């Protein structure tokens, strides 16, 4: 699962406010939320960046996005809208090298992002 903070969350070595889990995906609230709803969705398989994903990871990546969309619907944010973001490497703003997507909702999210 990797030796990142996310690997430690998956292994329950450090606490997190987990809001969703299935066999392949885990989601938890961001500790530094940028919107009223800010949840991180991570694959349980350790993939450092989106650029490191392989064709055989396609179903897992789809499952990650569908989990985020499903959560947004269940929490009542689908009609207003939400944003799902993946940062890739340093210039893309990635700080934890375990692929993840941010689900942000509950406020108007301007464009372009920072």
**Overall spatial form:** globular
| Class from helix and strand fractions | alpha+beta
**Major sheet: order of its strands?**
1-2-3-5-4
Radius of gyration: 14 Å
End-to-end gap: 30 Å
Beta fraction: 15-25%
Low-confidence runs: none
Helix content: 10-25%
Helix and strand topology:
Elements lengths: L4 H6 L7 E4 L3 E5 L7 E7 L14 H17 L7 E4 L3 H4 L8 E5 L9
Antiparallel strand pairs: 1-2, 2-3, 3-5, 4-5
Polypeptide structure, described:
The chain has 114 residues and is an alpha+beta fold. 24% of the residues lie in helices and 22% in strands. It contains three helices and five strands, in the order H-E-E-E-H-E-H-E. Strands 1-2-3-5-4 form a five-stranded antiparallel sheet, with helices on one face. It is globular, with a radius of gyration of 14 Å. The mean pLDDT is 96.
Key terms:
alpha+beta, about 110 residues, 5 strands, five-stranded antiparallel β-sheet, 3 helices
Short description:
The chain is 24% helix and 22% strand. By secondary structure, it is of the alpha+beta class. The chain has a 5-stranded antiparallel β-sheet with strand order 1-2-3-5-4, with helices on one face.
């Amino acid at each position: 699962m990797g030796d990142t903070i996310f690997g430690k969350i998956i292994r329950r070595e450090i606490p997190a406010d987990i809001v969703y889990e299935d066999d392949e995906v885990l989601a938890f609230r961001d500790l530094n939320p940028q919107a009223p709803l800010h949840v991180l969705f991570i694959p349980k398989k350790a993939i450092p960046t989106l650029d490191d994903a392989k064709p055989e990871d396609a179903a897992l990546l789809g499952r990650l996005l569908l989990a985020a969309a499903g959560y947004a619907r269940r929490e009542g944010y689908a009609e207003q809208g939400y944003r799902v973001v993946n940062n890739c490497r340093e210039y893309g703003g990635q700080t934890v090298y375990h692929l993840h997507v941010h689900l942000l909702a509950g406020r108007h999210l301007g464009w372009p992002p920072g």
